[in-house]
Amino acid sequence: MTVPENLRADVDAAKARVAALHAELPRWELVVWTAGNVSERVGDLFVIKPSGVSYDDLDADAMVVCDLDGNLVEGSRSPSSDTAAHAYVYRNMPHVGGVVHTHSTYAAAWAARGEEIPCVLTMMADEFGGPVPVGPFAIIGDDSIGRGIVETLRDHRSPAVLMQNHGPFTIGKDAKSAVKAAVLLEEVARTVHIAKQGGDLIPIPQSAIDSLYQRYQNVYGQH
Ligand SMILES: [Zn+2]
C-alpha cells in the first residue's frame, strides 16, 4: 500500500503538524531521550514518530505513515514501538484524531501507584471532566495496551488514561488536542501530588464538575 493521491496533501500537512508537535514534548519536559510519541489520523492512515530517533532530528520528512493495522505505508524508518497501541485506538474510537504517549514524571508516578488523580482542581474539571482514570497493567507486544486505553476511556470524559506501571496516553480530536491534554495532565498530576503532601484534598462536587466541564468544552475560548 502507498499513500493514495487524494490524501497526499493532507498527509504532508499532518507530517509537518506532527513534527512540530513533537517539539512540544521536550519543551514541556514530558519526555527524556527518545521516549514519547505523537500521532494524527488522516483518513484510514495515521502519521507517527519513527522509533528511536532523537527529538532534534524529528522533522516532517522523518515522520512515518501507517495504516490502521499499524503496517508501515510510507517512511524510511520503522514506526514508533507504540504504533500498535495508537492503531488500536484509531480502529476502535472513530472520533479520535490524535494520540499522544509520554512517561511524564508526575503522571507516571500516579501510574506507578495505580492511583487515579482525583478531581480537586477546577482546571481538571475543565479539561478532564472528572478524575483521570487508571488503565490496566499491559506489556508492549500485542493489542493489550491499545485495548486497555480504549476500555478505560470509552465511557469516560477524560482524554487521558494512566496505564498502570507505565504512564499516560492522551487522545483528542487532533494531535494538537492530545498534546494539550498531555501537557495539562502533567501539570495537574504535579499539583495534586504536591497538594497531597500538605494535607487532605477537597473534592469538587459532581454538579460543579459537570457545569465547569460543559462551560469549558462549549463556551470558553474563541468560537
Ligand atoms: Zn511507554
Radius of gyration: 17 Å
Q: State the domain count.
A: 1
Strands side by side in the biggest sheet? 4-3-2-1-5-8-7-6
Q: Unreliable stretches, pLDDT < 50, 5 or more residues? A: none
Q: Within the CATH hierarchy, at the fold level, what is the topology?
A: L-fuculose-1-phosphate Aldolase
CATH superfamily descriptor:
Class II aldolase/adducin N-terminal domain
The top level CATH class name: Alpha Beta
**From the 3D coordinates, which CATH architecture would you assign?**
3-Layer(aba) Sandwich
Number of H/I helices: 8
Shape: globular
Count of individual beta strands: 8
Please report the distance between the alpha carbons of the first and last residues.
Answer: 39 Å
Q: Kindly estimate the percentage of residues that lie in beta strands according to DSSP.
A: 5-15%
In N-to-C order, the SSE pattern is: HHEEEEHEHHEHEEHH
Helix fraction, binned, reads: 40-55%
Distinct ligands, ions and cofactors found in the model: zinc ion
Class based on secondary structure composition and strand pairing? alpha+beta
Oligomer: single chain
